[in-house]
Amino acid sequence: MIPRFLEGIRFADLTWAGAGPFSTKLFSDFGAEVIKVESLSRPDPVRVGGPFKDGKPGIDRSGYFASRNTRKKSLCMNMKHDESREILFDLIRRSDVVSNNFGPGAMDRLGLGYEDVKAIKPDIIYLSMPMYGEDGPFANLVGVGMTISAVTGLMWQTGYENEAPLGPGTHFPDHAANPYHAAFAVMAALRHRRATGRGMKIDLAQVESTINCMGLSFLEYAVTGEERPRLGNRSAHHAPHGIFRCAGEDEWCAVAVTSDAQWRSFCEILGAKSLADDRSLDSAAGRLAAADRIEADLSRWTAVRTAEEVMHAMQARGVPAGVVAHSKYLIERDAQLAARGYWQTLDHPEIGPSRFTSPPYRLDGERVELARPPLIGEHTEAVLGGILGYGPERIAELRAKGALE
Fold it and tell me: Among 81, 145, 254, 397, which has the minimal tally of Cβ within 10 Å of its Cβ?
């Protein structure tokens, strides 16, 4: 039996771009009915930002949008139209969660702030995800994942020693910290409502959430008064520790020696008698001091072997190692992902059969079977008629007035 443990939960989902839609996708994949409220006049930026299937732009051809919006329904309406608020109110009355990741005040200006929504649906769960939260000295500042990476310090700490910061892009804010913290908070609110009958407002400040990724750095600073330096792929505690070029075009393998036993195995794998016989390298401190020399020897050894050969040789002797996998490798050659059924192929009217990533977790040992993302406005009439109870004449009237575009 395919797990759909969130069936019966409905979202009126006004999120867009990265972190917000990824948060609500976690619910739609497990059976919740997530109705994505969209507008042709102001579409979700990832719908029009690509990457596009076969490089051909189109509002329904974005791979980024597709991967973040599986199993959702699309209700297309003009949010600036006079009747749009009443349509949304009707949807909210029949929903369990209202979600948005706009800047502070945006929902209030639409007449959809928490107090407005609570007045018509007292037990609503209201998820708001502004960058700095809805109040405080920086609340009016807005930004995206890259901005959040910068202001939290993730950019500053990611890079090579004595070089400018490189940064991790949007990965942590948009695809790790914020979506999962938001989903956890909504699940807790649903549980609370089930126990008490009361709804809840969730004000998730994305900067505050992302700072969780920096916890160790802040703790170190509190204790030592010193900022953690940029180390590239090296470690402050172990050597060798990094990624090393292998045979082939842009092929790399990560290798980390984290114990004395691993060090002895490492030397045997390389056949590096000079390293094994050097008593100064018997401790982690000694190896750190000689990191340049050790890594030079390792780089010469990996350069004539494939990344998979390096990984298997190291892992067989208990030395942590892994291929630095590009997309093609993950899809075509990664045995672990293949064995776990990580990739699912879904047919889509615009982009055709395409691979999608499964949720990495299982329920009762079973994989969740995905469903394709929606075309823009694909479910407008089904939502208005089937959920809100509007008749054909009312829907035609709204369309003629320009409210459904």
Answer: 397
Q: Which of 29, 96, 174, 364 is catalytic?
A: 174
Give Cα separations from 249 to 161, 199, 242, 304, 306 (angstroms).
25, 55, 18, 12, 10
Supply the pTM of this predicted model.
0.93
CA distance 251 to 241: 17
Domain boundaries, the chain: 10-204+341-400, 241-332
Please tell me the CATH code under which domain 241-332 is placed.
3.30.1540.10
Note if 174 is an active site residue: yes
Q: Could you report the average pLDDT of every consecutive run of 10 residues in the chain (405 residues)?
A: 80 96 96 96 92 94 96 95 94 98 92 96 98 92 92 92 90 94 98 98 96 90 92 95 96 98 98 97 97 97 98 98 94 91 94 92 85 98 98 97 94
Rounded to whole angstroms, the Cα distance separating 63 from 43 reads 15
Q: Do 158 and 168 touch, CB atoms closer than 8 A?
A: yes
